[in-house]
Amino acid sequence: MYGLITVIRLTTNRTHQSRCQIEDFMEKGIAPDTSPQWLSNLKQSGATITFTVLPVGWVGNWHENPKPQWIIPLSGRWFVETMDGQRVEMGEGEIRVQK
Fold first, then answer.
1. Cβ atoms 29, 35 nearer than 8 A
2. Cα–Cα distance between 39 and 28 in angstroms, integer?
3. What is the rounded CA–CA span in Å between residue 27 and residue 34?
4. What band does 2 get if pLDDT is binned at 50, 70 and 90?
5. Residue 38, burial from CB neighbour count under 10 angstroms (0-12, 13-18, 19+)
6. Do the Cβ atoms of 22 and 40 come closer than 8 Å?
7. In a 3-state reduction of DSSP, which class is residue 23?
8. Strand 37-44 vs strand 47-53: parallel, antiparallel, or unpaired?
């Protein structure tokens, strides 16, 4: 089981802030035939935020993104390789938008 991640949430009307723990991480693949990783979802009105923790050395199989995604590594490094062979590596705080 993976540990907790703390998130500070601001209410829609901006009158209240609260800390919440992202927990209930489950070890599973993000898509069929992909290597397992730790996943947890935070459902919000109009969006779902998926938190994932990739084990060291994790390599995933190619898969389509079911919806647009924003990917922001909080620590470590990871890469995405497209079907044309281009590989882009990202580190902490770099933002990637996938449509």
1. yes
2. 7
3. 12
4. low
5. middle
6. yes
7. coil
8. antiparallel
Which pLDDT tens digit goes with each residue over 18-57?
777 777 788 888 777 778 888 887 777 777 888 888 888 8
Contact 80, 65 (CB under 8 A): no
DSSP secondary structure letters along 32-68: TT---EEEEEEEETTEEEEEEEPPTT--PPP---SS-
Q: Which residue has the tokens 């995604």?
A: 69
What single-letter amino acid sits at 81? E
How many Å apart are CA 62 and CA 41, to the nearest integer? 22
Tokens at 95, concatenated = 């933002």
- Report pTM: 0.65
- C-alpha closest to that of 22 among 9, 36, 41, 47: 41
Give CA–CA dist 19/54, Å, rounded. Answer: 24
What the block records as the tokens of 52 is 């994932």
Query: Which has the closest alpha carbon to 42: 77, 18, 14?
Result: 18
What type of residue sits at position 55?
A: P
